Amino acid sequence: PHMRAHAMTRAPLLLLTLAPVVSAGCYDAQRVSVRAPAGSYMPVSFDLLQSNLGGVFDMPSGRFSCPAPGTYVFFFHMLKLAISVPLYVNLMRNDEVMVSAYANDGAPDHETASNHAVLQLYHGDQVWLRLHRGAIYGSSWKYSTFSGFLLYQD
After folding, report:
1. Phi and psi of 7, rounded to 5°?
2. Are 93 and 74 in contact (CB under 8 A)?
3. CATH code of the region 25-153
4. For a Cys-Cys bond, which of 15, 50, 106, 142 suits 28, CB 3.0-4.6 Å?
5. Phi, psi dihedrals of residue 87, rounded to the nearest 5°
6. pLDDT tens track for 71-105
C-alpha cells in the first residue's frame, strides 16, 4: 500500500528555456618554417593548426575572426631567429596594437618574445600578430605559437 501511494504521486514538470549559445571556438596555431625579414609591419602567418574549433582561425593570413561578442584570451610565443637583429612582435586587434613582445640580447642567439592579452571583442573583430622587425625561427619543434579562446561570452 505504501509503495502504491508513492507511485501515484507525481512531481510537477519544470521547463527551462535556455538562451542559445554560439560556439565561439578556439585555436592553437604553430609556425614550423622561418619567417625571414621581408620588411616591417608584416602579418605573421602560420603553417600548422593543432586545433581550430569553429574554423575561427585562418592560417595564411594568421587572423582570428571573432564569431561572437565576448571576452577572449590570447597567448603568443615567438622564437627569434639566431641573427643580430632584435625581434619585435605586436598583437593587433583590427589595426590597433594591444600588446607587444621584444627579444634581443645583442648576440646572434635564439630568444623568446612572449605576451598575452585579455580582450573584449565584437563579432567580426580580427586579432593577429604583426612582425614589426626581425625574423621568427620555425622548426618541427614548434617553438613559435599563437593561441586564443573564449573566456566569457556576452
Report:
1. -65, -25
2. no
3. 2.60.120.40
4. 50
5. -110, 125
6. 999 999 999 998 888 999 999 999 999 999 999 97
